[in-house]
Structure formats: structure tokens, C-alpha cells
Amino acid sequence: MATTAPHPGEEGPRRDFIFVAAISASAVGAGLAVWPFVNSMNPSRDVLAEATAEVDLTPIEEGQRITVLWRKKPVFIDHRAPAKIEEAEGVALGDLKDPQADADRVQRKEWLVLIGICTHLGCIPQGQRVGERLGDFGGWFCPCHGSHYDTSGRIRKGPAPKNLDVPPYSFISDTTIQLG
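-> C-alpha cells emitted (180 positions)
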């Protein structure tokens, strides 16, 4: 038996299938070839692990300060005594280089959470450990260029242009905060 060829100008169903299958295979192949490059732009596991950190506040006694690392930055956590809170709230905003009320810097009055990096040149201020210089305003002191921060982490004296930064954080329970 002789097979008949399609008439000129007509494409048979067999050619349609081959054409669609070739295009589909090419698209899948291109997607598989591009995927490793796209996936390499995602953050690595160690970066994702550092994106958030939980800190248990129970062992921190009133008046004690601790330092934790978050995103490779020191974070100062200060369990402030009532006298330090009163001192921070009593500062006139007009006396500040970077005016910011204490209430705008804390979520709960007794807990102050700051990124412990001087806003002048990126040094780590002193005042976290017992015996370190607290500066003229009872907060932190950066010995590199003489910046003094108060008990709310606000710049009061020296070359630093702004207050110590407050990281994004939230209380996930009464005794635990989550950074990030």
C-alpha cells in the first residue's frame, strides 16, 4: 500500500505533535539550565539562620547588661533599673543632638535593646561589662573618638551624628525577645 503525502500547504497532525514536543522539551531544558544560576542568588543557610535570634531575658537581673550577636553585630540588652528609666525619660529633647524620646526607643520601659555599634565610625562602645567606662551620661562611651551616649542610647556628646540604632525586635513572650 502506498501512503499518501499531505497536500502542499497542509501540515499533518504528526508534524504538529513533533513541533509542540520539541518546543516543550527546549523550554524545560532551558529552565533546568537556568535554575542553578537563579538558585545561587538565594541567601545561604548560615545567613538565613542569622536572620532572627531569640533571646531569653530571664537570667538578666535588673541593672545588668548583656551582649548577644545578631547578624554578626553586637546587640546590647539592658535590663534598666527604675532610676535609669526615670533618668532617660527626664531628658529634654532640645538637649539632644538626635532628638528621640525614650518611649520611642523601647517597647517595654525596663528593656533597652540597641545595636552596639557607634554611629560615628563603627566602633563598639564601652559600658556593657562591669568596670567599663559608662561615659558622662551613664550610658555608653566610645573611646575611639569620645562619643558619649545616655541611658537610652542617645548621643549626648562627641562626634557621633546619631543615636545608637534600635534593631527590629519583638516580645514573643514575657521573658523572650526575637531579634529580626
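Residues 12-42 form one domain.
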